[in-house]
Amino acid sequence: MKPTSVRLREARTSRGWSQPRLVRELRTAAGQRGHQLPTDSSVKRRIASWENGHSTPDDFYSPLLCDAYSMSAAELGLSHGELRDAAVIDAAYPTSPDDAIQTVSQLWRADLNQYDPLLTAEPSEPAWSEASLRWLVAPEPGIPRQRSGGVQVGLGDVAAVKTTADVFAKLDDQFGGDHARHSVIQYLNNDVAPLLRGRYTEPVGRALFSTVAEATLLAGWMSYDACRHGLAQRYFLQALRLAQDANDRRLAGSILSAMSHQATFLGRYTQAATLARAALMGISPVATPTLRAQFHAMEARALARTGDVVACEAALTAATRALESRNSDDEPEYISYFDDAELAAEAAHCFRDVNSARRAVAHAENAMSGTHVRSDFFATMVLADAHLRAGDVEEACRVALDALDLGEQLKSARCVSYLAEFRQHLDAIGPSAAARDLADEAREHRLWVAAGTYGQRPVRN
Fold first, then answer.
1. pLDDT tens digits for 228-273?
2. What number of CA atoms fall less than 13 Å from residue 287's CA on the CB side?
3. Which residues lie closer than 8 Å to 395 by C-beta, 6 or more apart?
4. Is the C or the N end of the chain the one with fewer CB within 10 Å?
């Protein structure tokens, strides 16, 4: 392993930077964090001392070096910084706006640099409870203290972040979370982090926090779709804190709903139902019909998995009634996708999970939007599974092949998990001509091949 002095010198020289250039980069990084540095000659002496192995950067300079080089403390060999990197692994709800900025920036940087302990981290069930409770009882939202350094941020910068995130959201919807996930994190780390550490008025700050919360929510969804569940949970937590400080309760509720969705996928059904209820409770003064419908649907999905048929159907009924009263002009843009087809897909999941196969088939057949590729893949696989549970193996196999054709362009571990579960159920029924024909026709499909080697852990969706 290379000494810290060598790593620091190589980080600078590999970029073609002189020591005076690094001084300027450190000064910029310090300004973005609201700090000031001593004279150029003093900082240059420190750099020479670090690179000659006479000293190591302290807790003040380590994060500045990480910012300047866009590298993690572990990559730079900063031992005390490694402890700070380890803190990124903890699924903790930020205590303040400044803490949120620092933590989410560390997450983006560590993710971008493929910090393995973060990428392989497990989700924390207590973190869901802590975050939802702290958001529900939070005092008035705050905005970071004014900084003397950093870039000046205006509403035009916020609009640029929003537009860019919308482009990434469309790519995610069409090609799956693994398609552009790295590019999203790279954009957030390189272009958005400096804005958060910049200078802005309170109205601009709230708009910035709301927009970055939505972009971080997208990063969480993409990480979840890639089945990097600990990382996804951490992005959801940071997004919730940013939404809290933006005073955007509608968006915060949607983030809790995303947490509920993930918790159901992971088999934490009671926690998932609680998160959906917290979303409903927390946005009640500003709730819209579509948001309420989506939150009720998430509650129903969790309750179906617990086997509580009565409560599940009551939640679905509430979702249907709420959606019937929606007014598209008053709905946030990010929830506009949730329509009758999406609700039908959620109901199909529910009835499949409570072993009401015929009702699952009826709802799944109404769940194809024709515009959301991944959602249509999920709905088609639920339809195939429902036919299988109803005893119609031939139709189940035909529909599964349709799903494979539909999902050929998707890079999504969740899609693979749906297909793997279907294959498990198909194998459990025993050999059949329809199953053999499906295997013959599907053997070249990428998702089919991936599903055949899907891990040994239980598959849930």
1. 999 999 999 999 999 999 999 999 999 999 999 999 999 999 999 9
2. 21
3. 387
4. N
- Which class for 203: exposed (0-12), middle (13-18), buried (19 or more C-beta within 10 A)? exposed
Let me know: does 353 contact 305? Beta carbons within 8 Å.
Answer: yes
In whole angstroms, give the CA distance from residue 418 to residue 378: 7
Helix, strand, coil percent content, the chain, rounded in steps of 5: 75, 0, 25
Beta strand segments in 176-318, E: none
Which helix or strand (DSSP H or E) is residue 400 part of?
helix 393-406
- The Cβ-side half-sphere exposure at 348, using a 13 Å CA radius, reads 28
Residue with token string 């958060």: 196
* Each residue's pLDDT tens digit, 60-108: 888 889 888 888 777 788 854 444 455 566 788 998 888 899 899 989 9
| 8 Å CB contact between 314 and 333 | no
Site of tokens 């073609």: 16
